[in-house]
Design a protein that fits this description.
The chain is of the alpha/beta class. The chain has a domain of 201 residues: Vaccinia Virus protein VP39 (Rossmann fold). It contains nine helices and seven strands; from the N terminus they run ααααβαβαβαβαβαββ. It has a seven-stranded mixed sheet with strand order 3-2-1-4-5-7-6, with helices on both faces. Helix 2 packs across helix 3 and helix 3 crosses helix 4. The C terminus is likely disordered.
Length: 316
């Protein structure tokens, strides 16, 4: 069978996919090695120049972010909290056993039945009124109870029985401290009417005779009281300089302000007017969380801090 020149060129072009006259090794596409090795499947490097395998036993440790040293007058050691405190994503429930364990870690024996009842009431009311975060109510309530009772480990902050829980929310720390301190005269102050109504219900069911619930604002409450408070408790309300300004008209000279703060507390405390406020000490609560205890000097400016003997029965 004969083929003319044109037919031969057509066949050659079809088989090689190259134009006529370019069917040459110079124009053929050469195989390119991949990033995993050569085109033949063999690695590009020889066994001598391959990178040695990692020695995991000598692997360099990950660089840890250096934590800033806290420059606070820490008083005492941080209580060893239960493993479940501070983990708000754990699915555990408020129960009597957990409350007993929490109180036992703090080293004193208040009436845990009433403390547990307070948490159960707060949990029930929280379904209708937003007293605390609803993300994980049980975990939030247990941590709030733990933080509220921390001042019981060192009562040098006490200046008398009259205590004010400013912006009390769900009754923390006011109600747990009032249940623990038999001689306390606790005032729970909040500007939201729904919360104060809920607190009144809790106080009635707990039969607390030493607690008063007040619906008012911190800025105007001073005009409605005859005697200033001995100590003011502030947890999760506002920045410390603003809180301190409110407390100047509510706190007697020589009284104390207890503020629950995280890492920002050190910076906020240093920004206060040294003529009016003295940072006495800080009580550790959780890692990087403290109760700052400040004394209000009043407008005199030169008053020395007064440490009250808690065994003195003549407190008024």
């Amino acid at each position: 069978m004969k083929f003319d020149v044109a037919s031969e060129l057509t066949i050659r072009y079809t088989l090689t996919s190259l134009p006529p006259g370019m069917n040459d090794d110079r124009y053929k596409k050469k195989p390119q090695p991949s990033r995993h090795g050569s085109a033949s499947g063999r690695p590009d490097r020889t066994s001598d120049d391959r990178r040695p395998s990692a020695d995991h036993s000598r692997a360099a440790p990950k660089r840890m972010r250096r934590r800033k040293k806290v420059d606070l007058p820490i008083r005492g050691l941080r209580p060893k909290s239960p493993a479940w405190i501070g983990h708000l994503d754990h699915p555990f429930l408020v129960d009597k056993q957990r409350v007993d364990e929490l109180v036992e870690r703090l080293g004193f024996q208040p009436d845990t039945d009433l403390l547990h009842k307070h948490l159960e009431l707060a949990k029930t009311i929280n379904e209708d009124v937003n007293l605390v975060s609803r993300a994980n109510v049980d975990a939030v309530l247990l941590q709030s109870l733990w933080e509220s009772l921390i001042p019981m480990g060192n009562e040098d902050w006490r200046r008398g029985p009259r205590l004010l829980d400013l912006g009390t929310g769900g009754g923390f720390p006011g109600i747990p401290l009032a249940l623990t301190l038999a001689d306390a005269e606790m005032t729970l102050l909040d500007s939201r009417r729904a919360k104060t109504l809920s607190l009144e219900r809790m106080v009635d069911e707990l039969q607390m005779k030493n607690v008063e619930v007040v619906h008012d604002r911190a800025e105007t409450h001073a005009d409605r009281i005859e005697t200033r408070y001995d100590s003011i408790l502030v947890r999760a309300v506002s920045v410390l300089p603003e809180v301190a300004e409110w407390c100047e008209s509510l706190l007697r000279p020589g009284g104390t302000l207890l503020s629950w703060k995280g890492p920002e507390g050190e910076r906020e405390a240093k920004s206060l007017d040294e003529e009016k406020w003295t940072l006495l000490f800080a009580l550790p609560v959780l890692p990087h969380r403290y109760v700052l205890v400040l004394e209000y000097k009043g407008d005199g400016g030169d008053k020395e801090p007064v440490i009250l003997d808690n065994n003195d029965s003549d407190i008024s």
